[in-house]
Specification:
Blueprint: E1 5-10, H1 15-27, E2 30-33, H2 45-55, E3 59-62, H3 70-75, H4 77-97, E4 102-106, H5 135-155, E5 158-164, E6 166-168, H6 181-195, E7 200-203, E8 209-210, E9 212-214, H7 215-227, H8 230-236, E10 243-246, E11 252-253, H9 254-265, E12 271-274, E13 283-284, H10 289-293, H11 302-318
Parallel strand pairs: 1-2, 1-3, 3-4, 4-5, 5-10, 6-9, 7-12, 8-13
Antiparallel strand pairs: 8-11
Bound molecules: guanosine-5'-diphosphate (GDP).
Length: 319
Amino acid sequence: MSRLDRIFVAGHRGMVGSAIARKLRDRGDATVITRTRSELDLADQAQVRTFFANEKIDQIYLAAAHVGGIMANNTYPAEFIYQNLMIQTNIIHEAWRAGVEKLLFLGSSCIYPRLASQPMAEDSLLTGVLEQTNEPYAIAKIAGIKLCESYNRQYGTDYRSVMPTNLYGTGDNYDAEKSHVIPGLLRRFHDAKESAASEVVIWGTGKPMREFLYVDDMAEACLHVMDLNIDTYRKNTQPMLSHINVGTGEDLTIRELAIIIADVVGYRGPIAFDSTKPDGTPRKVMDVSRLHNLGWRARIGLREGLALAYADFLTSTRR
Ligand code: GDP
């Protein structure tokens, strides 16, 4: 009897990691391995080495990361660069040492230059200056892609990378200050509706444009890319440009987003803009032709996803 593949989902308590673990368990053709932070500190090299020596892992989804929205990135830059560099370096290096052949590294669309031409294609990486508010995080994620590519080139591993656009959905962080725009606004509009507040204030000018992908779509894309035949993957990528964008390819302004969220939540009052808060990158939308060529496209539309996210927010506030 052949043994089931042992798949380690690093970061299974996070929004993306938990969606990946759910999809893998639903599929039911592998043993899914997870560890909480108190069981395994991924920033500690010795612990990570012992874990891989004992667990005989076949595949890794590297979804563990220190993440946050524009204010958190701007306020805690040291934590963002240190934690992410440590987590990914420990996992990638110790996975290679233990003979793990397949790994999928999850990055972010903020790896691209602040003024990259839009939509952003994979080959705009390292062609310009990064957005200041999250540069330390972006540098760590770029290092993660380069770690994968370097181990592939020198050691013949099959370590792949996907760069998601802004994600949202089940398991998001709904903190009003430290979260990303969708969970932050779901909370603020909900609280305003409940307290009959006189207005809701949106950070920045409302003019920046963003693209959003529901997390279950992201998890599905991750499994798709991990499972691609190696020849198909290599034919559609290059050894030193191996990452794949994951998104919808469609964007909207923060103002337009706010209006849809207000509608989904049922808030009918006025919306104001606080232009003393940072806007971040003016526009961020992915060129997803590489992913489309590889046979995957997003399925969950923004309004449908926001309704699912609001339901998740309501559940999480009741817990
Ligand atoms: P970014 O894509 O890295 O800039 O991440 P965010 O999701 O944190 O922010 C996206 C855009 O939404 C930025 O232009 C923010 O200024 C704007 N924004 C408006 N209101 C909020 C809010 O309540 N929370 C956050 N995080 N961003 C907001």
